[in-house]
Amino acid sequence: MAFLPDFHPTLPPLPYHPCLNHEAHDRVARIHLPVAPRCNLACAYCERNSASPRHLASGPGTSMGIMTVDEAVERSAQFLEEWGAGAIIGVAGPGDPLANAETMEVLRRVRRAHPEVRLCLCTNGLVLPEHVDGLAEVGLESLSVTVNGVTPDVVAAMQPRLVWRGEVLTGTTAAELLLEHQRQGIARSAALGMAVKVNMVVAPGINAHQAVDVARSMAGLGALVFNPMPLIPRAGLSHVPAPDPQFMHKLREACSPYLHVFAKCRQCRADACGVPGKERSQ
Ligand code: SF4
Ligand code: SF4
To answer: Does CATH number 3.30.70.20 belong to domain 22-274?
Structure first.
């Protein structure tokens, strides 16, 4: 299936990053340092919320183990030696990177040791507003935020529960807070010069009908790339069928007037390493 072109008539060009740029996808290596086990959200589709053993599963939120900060810094040095200065170092879980103090410590230490390094981070966005300035200070090049809808009822169906300042919030109350923090965080990250990619887990019959609204509204906040990903039916959404490739292709086309649309995402593990699709876990 043909991918949408890597250019957009009105948006800035894409960084040469395997998760933003189709051309770079099969050429540039990235490492996810699994230093972030804790999460502040309970996504209905997350393997963390199912009984199956996480280390056997694949996809986001899964990892063979957790690295300490020291291990991650050491691993980064090995990785850069192996793959060169253009390679990307990121944190993508297995929980929410920003819910773990280790993440910022690793990013700072890696930056100090390798001043030219390209840094990347994925988050659910709940605590992004309080971290965004720190991310800019550390020179984060690209940031991915998962936004699963534009209205609280739809977001609550995908992400029914969260923990905010020690309190459990549920349903649309939780979703409203999450959406507000995502919007604030994305707008500020983009204003500070980060390349912002918005991920969306697409579940037919639940949130797929809001994909275009997500793309349009995120473009208005300064996001650069939209990455709609087909639901992997598991955990609380194991009964929902995954969208087929034709469905995803049409959805991506409908979103493409608003943002660069990325179509090669492999929904990698939180400990992936190497060129996407050719990697090994650590
Ligand atoms: Fe790139 Fe997608 Fe893998 Fe993230 S999950 S590293 S965006 S291919
Ligand atoms: Fe799982 Fe990520 Fe959602 Fe946390 S934010 S529950 S790790 S999918």
So the answer is: no
Residue where the block lists tokens 């969306």:
200
Judge if the beta carbon of residue 256 lies within 6 A of ligand 1.
no
Task: Give me ligand 2 centre to Cα 91, in Å.
Answer: 13
Q: What contacts 230, CB < 8 A, 6 or more positions away?
A: 202, 242, 243, 248
For residue 54, count CB atoms less than 10 angstroms from its CB and return exposed for 0-12, middle for 13-18, buried for 19 or more.
middle
Closest ligand, as measured to the CA of 59: 1
Q: Compute the half-sphere exposure of residue 202: CA atoms within 13 Å on the CB side of its CA.
A: 30
At residue 214 the predicted structure's pLDDT band, cuts being 50, 70 and 90, is very high
Residue nearest to atom 1 of ligand 2 (CA): 46
93 lines ligand 2 (CB under 6 A): yes
CA of 19 to the centre of ligand 1 (A): 5
Query: pLDDT, tens digit, for every residue of 155-177?
Result: 999 999 999 999 999 999 999 99
The pTM is what? Answer: 0.92
Query: With a 6 A CB cut-off, is 61 part of the ligand 2 pocket?
Result: yes
Is the pLDDT confidence value at 53 over 60?
Answer: no
Counting from 1 in the atom list of ligand 2, the atom nearest the Cα of 124 is 5
C-alpha distances (whole Å) from 165 to each of 40, 129, 177, 262, 265 are 10, 14, 12, 34, 32
User: Tokens representing 58?
Assistant: 């694949």
Output the pLDDT for position 158.
97
- 232 CB less than 6 Å from ligand 1? no
Reported confidence tier of residue 241, pLDDT bands at 50, 70, 90:
very high
